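Incident review: delayed structure delivery

Summary: a single-chain prediction request sat in the queue longer than the usual turnaround. Root cause was a stuck worker, restarted by the on-call engineer. No data loss occurred. The affected request and its eventual output are reproduced below so the record is complete for anyone auditing the incident later.

Affected input:
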Amino acid sequence: MGGQLGNIAFVIWRESVEALLVIGILNAWLTRQQVDAARGRLYLWAGVGAGLLISVAFGLALVLFGEALPDDAQTGYQTAAVLIAAALIVQMVFWMRRHGRTLKRDIESSLQSAADRSNWWGVFALALIAVAREGSETVVFLYGTLAAARSGAIAAPAAVALGGFLLAIGTYYLLQLGSRIMSWKLFFRITEIMLLFLAASLLVTGVDNLIGLGVLPRLSGRLWDSSAILPDYGPVGGLIGSLTGYRARPDLMQVLAYLAYWGVIYWALFWSRPQAKIA
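Output delivered after worker restart:
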């Protein structure tokens, strides 16, 4: 569970920084406006609050629906949540890679259009969508992580999530002050790599569950056994396993799934873009 708590803190931290970046762009644009900035800021924070409420409601619906299922269906539901969380992490990494460079310009362009129409509901909608999107992604990830840990404990993950959020506020403030030490681009590049490893870890957990459910075959016995050197149930091995998907005694299906995942990621990062330009 220790490694899973680290994952929770990391994702809350990273997603909160992303949401704060969008809110910061909105707030900075409103600050530069000479007319109705105070009114626009009311719509901004109302949108932030509405986005948070939607995220909380989505999280409650996710948990309550899972608890309402019969015991034999809950494993399948949690496995689906784990795999969806993995896919969502990969999707948000590539979304930021596509839109990160133009994010500020796109947001300010939308804000200007809303201001030209004297429609502050556009500010409300932008803030709501930004917060609800990041919050919903985080909720799915948290549910998938807790399902992977097979833990119903709430207090420790909640405390860690709060710590991750407070750390995000401090990180955002430092990035604003010290862009010469670490740029936003470098921050997102480093955290993207960590997120991709987290997605790989969730994928392996999902494959483990599917094998346990009889949906996937193992294809082999244990390919190797490194548990004498680094057991994946120990403090260090467990942490590495939850961060990267490491298994001390993997079978062929786990290895194939892991290699296929990184093959697809490599292709998407380094091969798909030149082909897209040619097309």
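Verification: Residues 1-272 form one domain.
Action items: add queue-age alerting; document worker restart procedure.
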